[in-house]
Amino acid sequence: MRDITLGQYFPSNGILHKLDARIKILLLIAYIVIIFCSFNFFALGLVVLFAITTVILSRVPVKMFLKSLKTIIIIVLITSILNLFYGSGEPLCQWWIFTITLNGIFNAITVTLRIICLVIVSSALTFTTSPTDMTDGLEKLMKPLTVFHISVHEIAMMMTIALRFVPTLLEETDKIMSAQKARGADMESGNLVKRIKALIPILVPLFVSSFRRAYDLAMAMECRCYRGGKGRTRLKQMKMGKRDVFACVFMLILISGVVLCDVFLSGIIPS
Question: Helices marked H in the chain — which ranges?
Fold first, then answer.
């Protein structure tokens, strides 16, 4: 549980911390699209290079990104193995119903790199953006939805609070599990049914603690006269600067590079 870093924010004076939250969210969306539009190793190389650059510019310890990857390592391995046997062409190795081809190896490597880059850059967004800035950025981006009488501020607030309390709930779960083990609870032996039953003493106090935290948060917001986004002012106004323009230009260069690699270099290596 302690290895899950989703929703954590690390204060720093890095370049990514100074970017506008709206720009970072839009760049992340564009990057996700680019990840699944890279069909050869040259394009994937540009995608991986962008992820490495993001880690360097974030000034967040590399071990935090490794912790983010550690939580999904099983998913990455399973997905890679499944894609390894899913490919066309001349078989390089064959055993029973399993066939490994050059195209299957390419598929496995591609899927692995895509998932790793996606997790790294997504983690960089939460590492370098405070919950307040995240709320303001999401609210600004979804502002056109107010035409359809959708409460944009409440949606952005709920999303940010949910993301913010993920580390808190995980820490609470870890404490409850440690307390139950200290009382002699056995959650690692037995069949699947016994393990599921062993989770009940963990889930019940976790739900009670979650509702208590939600009630305390609601009371705190009410005591501070919180009335939603209507008439709400902000201490810090969001403004785009030269860094944001440079970041957008850099993303356009990445998009152009990936498109050119897919168009002109698709025949050099398998796709």
Answer: 15-18, 21-35, 41-58, 62-70, 73-84, 102-128, 131-141, 152-164, 166-182, 192-198, 200-223, 242-264
DSSP labels for 103-115?
A: HHHHHHHHHHHHH
∠ CA 144-148-154, nearest 5°, is: 75
What CA–CA distances, in Å, run from 132 to 99, 113, 192, 231, 241?
Answer: 51, 31, 42, 17, 19
Output b/e per residue, 115-125; b: 16+ Cβ within 10 A.
bbbbbbbebbb
Side-chain-side CA neighbours of 28 within 13 Å: the count stands at 22
**Distance (Å, whole) CA 254 – CA 257:** 5
Q: Please, which residues have CB within 8 angstroms of residue 64's CB and are 6 or more apart in sequence?
A: 5, 8, 10, 123, 127
| Contact in structure between 228 and 155 (CB atoms under 8 Å) | no
Backbone phi and psi for residue 94, each to the nearest 5 degrees, phi listed first: -140, 135
Q: CA 176 to CA 122: how far, in whole Å?
A: 29
Max Cα–Cα distance, the chain, nearest Å: 69
**Token pair belonging to 27:** 């760049």
Any long-range contacts for 198-206 (C-beta under 8 Å, 24+ apart)? 202/173, 202/176, 202/177, 205/176, 206/169, 206/172, 206/173, 206/176
Per-residue pLDDT tens over the stretch 130-158: 877 887 888 888 888 888 878 787 788 78
pTM of the model: 0.75
Cα of 166 vs its chain's centroid, Å: 12
